[in-house]
Amino acid sequence: MSNPDLVTDKDCEEFLFERGKGWVCEINDQVVGFSIVDLKENNIWALFVHPDFEGLGVGQKLHHIMLDWYFQQTKKKCLAGNSF
Fold it and tell me: Per-residue pLDDT averaged across 39-64, rounded?
């Protein structure tokens, strides 16, 4: 994200505790990626991987875990803007 100040702590709290759920990936006690899904708008609100850990499958694993949870929560067949 080019300007992290655009997302407030309040925004994160809302998406994590009211609108959806989030996950983090740690490698050697370092957070290297995170994702958040939004059930209200049916989309992926965040999916970020630290540049030093790109290409290791972190984003793919977070994406799979997030979508598995999402589709357990809803009867929708796809996320907003995507068709499967």
Answer: 96
